[in-house]
Records
---
Amino acid sequence: MADKTPEPKVMDPVYVNAVQSHFEVVNAYWERTTPTFIVKTRGKGYRQHLMKPAFKALADELRGHGYLPRIRWIIDNYHLSILERKAGGEENYLRNKLLFAATVLTVMLDGYLRSNNPILTQELMIGVPVIVNALIFTFGILIIFGVHEYGHRYMAIKRGIDTSQPYFIPAPPGMGGTLGAVISQREPPVNRDALYDLGLSGPIAGFVMTTLVGILGISLSFVVSNAQATRWMIEYPSIRFQIMPLPLILEMIATVLKPTLETEVLIMHPVAFAAWVGCIVTFINLIPAWQLDGGHIIRAFVGRESHKIISAAGVILLVISGYMFMGVVVAFFMMKAGGESIEPLDDISPLSPSRRLGLILYVTVMLLSLVALLPI
């Protein structure tokens, strides 16, 4: 019996023509089952500064045909591979809705317990139903987390990246009744610029909303004398006033709206606590480690290898800031396979100069939202 010769693989003219229209093709081959091209930018030499726009244009063209390109530098050549883009299909939002409903309930319970204390109900806010403060608190918490995630989603849509709707995560009362929200990213960003934008968009949007909620919360808060606070602690033995380290942004707001003397104390309204939680979330997300938003930002800035080193420094920053548990969690996932930040399809082209300047904004927001649970 004669041996059957395997049929030669044929490349799809769709991506062949697209690659040829944006690059000068030196050679084409199959890397196992992946069609791959050795390419140059148009003109003499490699002209790396032309690589980013050419590759982005190719990615935008191929995305609609069900393909995604990926480029690497291997032995003095650009190797451009063509990957199949998984069809998104129709998304079922049932899980998102159930998790959101559960989160509303846990946040409202947290807000109710936080609002139902005699200092507020019998001294400072007589006649205001507890449920009113609980509802305002719930709105404040959910809008901070929601705006954060939809900041990511907006940027993902703008960059043509397929992502899910946010998944809200309920939690027992104590730290706001929720662990936040996440979105699922189904494909990598095109280049480092897109990765940077994706990482920064959520924290910036969330920080702006946290500031607005903070203005509302501080304006609803109360300034009382230390002597009055001491009398209330004697009169209501179940209540203990706790000194909370305020992030710089809330300190600035309080200085303008509710200035206090050395003999006075600021009693935070539950909505102000919602902003306080929002600052913690913003700060943690901006830590330059693992797959946190700050990890994506720094990964886009310094590349893969340096990102690993900076991630270790980010874990140390978490620990010395008082977030020991979070530091352990991040360190654990960093050690697992696949625990690195997202690798863009074009990891060769550097971050644009304007985004390098944007690191000033990144550091500024991180410092403004820092809530140090331990002295640093």
---
Amino acid sequence: MVKKQNQAARETVILAGNERISDSYFRLTADCDSHYLEAAAGQFVTLRMPDQKEPLLRRPFSIHQVLAAETGKPQIEILYRVVGGFTERLSQAGPGSLLDLLGPLGRGFSVKHHHQPVAIVAGGIGVAPLVFLASQLKDAGTDMDQVSVFIGGRSENDILCQNFFKKLGTRAVVATEDGSAGYHGLVTAPLEKWAQNKEASMIYACGPHGMLTAVGKIARSKNIACEVSIETLMACGLGVCMGCAVKTQDKTQGYSHVCKDGPVFDAAVL
């Protein structure tokens, strides 16, 4: 079962770093309140820049990591891709800039001590919450040599965090649609081969909708538990505006709201 959400809070935080890591991808670091130390991998935050009136609505970002800083105050990391006006302005913000931060929001992945093979499947920027997940799995006592990470992207420029996963002791498999790195094709192809292992116990995934649908089918065909984090537009992040409804197998309502009921769901309900 996916982990329930923690109490969210809004605060103004100071940007400590904002580095370009690959092409249009950036990783920002900001000081944050100590309640983020209780955040679950898969939860998210929403951001605004206090000195700017646009955009009107806050923007959601997965929690990439929560780190203990030398000052004793934790720091939050957010991995993001420049795709529009807000993220373009965000990428230009330097250390000392202020951010309006609300979180942690939503429901995260279920983290436990795994002894049997586990797969983590990332598609493009979907890798962002999965770094946090891998760290929490290790902290929970999971045998990291039992964890296989499948990282997919359109090209080599979209393959992120591979070295981080390797340093944790996982097996990292790369797939690119143009063949510029690793397996030439969709990341679900090597995952399907991995799923032939009869001892496989869990699949975690985050990425484009089509990838998540394919991952869910693989999991069901092999009777493997599976949790997926859905990427979609979320306006308020609190379940108030009802703008992120997705159709699910929930017999009571038929729809769930990604920001409140997710973004992590058991793949069986999708």
---
Amino acid sequence: MKLACLFSGGKDSTYAIHLAKQQGHDVVCLLSVFPKSDESHLLHHPNLKWTKLQSVSMKIPQLIISSNSDEIDNELIVMEKLLQNAKDEFKIDGLVHGGIKSKFQKEKFETLCKKLNLVSIAPLWNTEPKQYMNELVNSNFHFLMVTVSSDGLDEQWLGKIILKSDIELLSTLSDKFGFNLNFEGGEAETFVIDCPLFSHPIKINQFTKNWDGYRGRFEIVDAELNCNA
């Protein structure tokens, strides 16, 4: 099937593309909704403008739209408009997304797709967290943590590329502090800088870190595709 991907630049939406392609689907466009603020319950916020580099590196065109409200119903209207644009321009059959456990998100996306006569595909659905995180690293997905907002996750994780050894530590912290190891509850958000889908990795030239004692953000200020790598 020809699919659009609801794309945030994080590990889940990027890996969902990887799995969809392995299943024989053709991911023909990326759909990115810029939320009004980080208060959104439906949309990913940090470093979204740099998804344009991922789009170029994957050679998958990107359609973007901005939401002027954090209200879920309004965000869904904006998403519907973007999906309709993708259907008109790319003749898509369905939508792939990186949902893992959130029934709320999954049901919203399924309802939206049904309305537009599209198939909703969630290849990561119900994956076991530790197995999934190891699978990401084993599949040469290089991603860094760009926000943290949970007990047990401190400033040292901001901007850190997750390695195999980090997964063991994160698993221990997850057990101790009760956060989701795959971060789907918003405990952390990620940004992929390289993976098998990319023609070139992303080089971060400049960044800022903000930490308030409990939550923090790694903000990419300047980045480019590393065409020499």
---
Amino acid sequence: MTIQRFKLFLLAVLLATMGLTGQALAELNPVAMVTQAQGNVEYSKDGEKWKAVTRNKLLSEGEQLRSAADGSAKVINQITGTVQNMGASTVIKITANGIEKVSGTLSEPDKSATDLLESLDKRFAKAQRYTTVRRSVDKEKGKNVKLDTIKEISLSPKYPELAWSNLGAEFTYELIIGDKPIPVPSASGDMVRYKVAGLTPGKHDYLVRVLQNGQEVYTPKKPSTINWVDGEALKPVEKGMKDLQALAPGDDFMMGAFLEDRGFTVAAMDMYRKYFKDNPGDVDMRPMLIKTYHDLNLKDLQKNEAVQYQKMLSEQE
């Protein structure tokens, strides 16, 4: 047994202990993603039973996609990062190497999209690590107060918000950027958000102290980093966003993936949340939202979303 086969065997055993099926195992390695579906577009796992594509859809090896006379879609090859336009009355199948036309019209791969997004299959596989509901997350909070924040994050005038876990209504916070302390009041909900302003382009140390009744109860040992993106550094980001808007206009999920790839984790979370609010039945893409919760150390939100994801997976079986 080769090392690669052994790794796959171990992964299959792990998934079995989690109660996931072989179908879920296949979905860990998507080959293509369908986006911007218009008209009647359907996918099939076996070529016999077909289901409508109504939102972004990940496809794995062996699956097929077809369009009716009024149908069209964009298909992203996760392996190469290129995009192809699927025309009307077309059938394609997904192979280990990517996308293969069976009949109809499929454009040549568009390589201009390669630099817009990191290969989504790698990021999706990484995101799957955070979908398990771990017992440690369920433990009751102890008396010792501790607050973890994201270690490095990109912010800009358009996306200026930091976010961290809300420890409770009895706590307030002191955000320190460089040597400047900023009071942050208590908040409701699962997270605290604060809009940063007035920074010069480049990296800045920051940390969040926790206060109770005006007294410091927790200060992290090491600062985290804000990368403030503005001026010349912002131009390639703006160009990438403009190119993505042309490729996938109005696609909140794709914009979230773009922003996450460039370190704008709070902005990415917001885009993913908006996408799932508009597409509550989408199971395939949810690990990406769960990953942003993990990266931001929003443990309660990560747990709740992971529970919802596992529930939706089980209902699909």
